[in-house]
Amino acid sequence: MSSEATTRNIVIIGGGIIGCTTAYYLSRHPQFASSSTKITLIEASKHGIAQGASGKAGGLVAQWAYPKELVKVSFPEHVRLAEEHNGAERWGWRFVACGSWEGRGEDIDEGTGTGVGAGGERKSLEKTFGLDAPTHLAETGLPADLNWIKDELTSAYSPMAPAGATAQVHPYLFSRSMLDLARERGVELVSGKVTAIDIDKTADRRVSGVTYTPCDGGESRKIPATHVVLAAGVWSRQVLPAVPVVGTRAHSITIRPPPSAAPLAAHVLFTEIALPGAHASPEIYARPSNEAYCCGPGDDSSVPDTVDDVEVDEAACESIRAHVASISPVLRAGTVQRRQACFLPVVSTGGGPIVGEAASIAAGLLIATGHTCWGISNAPGTAKAIAELIMDGKISCADLQKLRPARFL
Ligand SMILES: Cc1cc2nc3c(=O)[nH]c(=O)nc-3n(C[C@H](O)[C@H](O)[C@H](O)COP(=O)(O)OP(=O)(O)OC[C@H]3O[C@@H](n4cnc5c(N)ncnc54)[C@H](O)[C@@H]3O)c2cc1C
């Protein structure tokens, strides 16, 4: 990709974690201050950024995530970002123990459901796929400080990674902070839905801008661009049909324990709960804000027009609550604060994410999507690579040949 032009008009489509973090890395690139570079991020939700998966994910940052090429850059970048911008205060950054828990649930009514949303077939979120064999470290028994699981119900517990290899962020706060820091350097946020990527077919088939419909209604408008970054998650395909990204919907809830309870110890658990005639496997994340984030399995229901139209199935949320309550008295006594659903972007042909320039479609068109269950973990590496590609003309932080759009489009 040519880096000759020093005047750049960069438009990022999508204010999820990938778009917001890309805005941050572009605005921090050494060439940003000395060049004439304008960056605009455009987000389609009426409610602002990170209303989809990037605001509703668990927030685990793991060295066992995949693909390794991105993890190697992303994990240390997460550590650096947290140190540089006080991530502990700003976005709930901390190292956290992560374990696999097996046991039985108690006091649960029959027919509490599977956690799968109505209208969809069960799908795995595939988060444990990156673990090396043997899958887990040796069984240790329940950690002494793990105060939110009933000991007697436990049949096995194994750490999933050594200390220091798993951390967490609050994904909405991280995305928000990335964009806030980028806006301090002049990045502009536009509220609108991109309907087309404009390509100048007369010259060198280069992007010339985007066309969008403002969220507050009104006529369709254009923003000129020398570079367009498509980071619209599962909606990337709506904007560019050649992008092979589909969605997996998953439900989640957050629970605040009763005020009288001790603070939830810092653990993330991947559970396998045996229930009368059934089985459930919610992921449970204790957060520094003293809430538990709990998510159920994925489903294959169809992706709606915008993030604001994603349907939440209350029965799926209640089912997740009941499963978690069956192993945790303190969370049973707690108050459910959020019941939500979102779509994680999956590359339908396997592999991914897709990261790089889609030169066969247009010069200056970059794609950064299809991060499956690891978009929170892998956002910094993706964003750093895209920023290097635009500002330096090549990616230096990693070898991302395997992820280049030419392999997928
Ligand atoms: C239940 C669940 C738990 C998860 N847990 C983790 C975890 O613990 N760790 C981890 O690393 N990952 C996790 N993930 C995965 C992670 O959430 C995603 O990979 C990541 O959020 C994808 O980010 P994104 O920016 O690509 O997409 P999104 O978050 O979907 O953002 C895309 C944005 O683009 C906007 N947009 C779409 N179309 C347009 C348009 N035409 N014009 C303008 N804007 C548009 C959308 O409104 C949206 O805001 C989880 C996902 C789920 C569902």
UniProtKB/TrEMBL annotation:
InterPro entries: FAD-dep_OxRdtase, FAD/NAD-bd_sf. Transmembrane segments: none annotated. One of its GO terms (biological process) is retrograde transport, endosome to Golgi. Residues 10-389 form the FAD dependent oxidoreductase domain. Pfam families: DAO. One of its GO terms (cellular component) is cytosol. SUPFAM superfamilies: FAD/NAD(P)-binding domain. It comes from the Eukaryota. This is Putative oxidoreductase C1F5.03c.
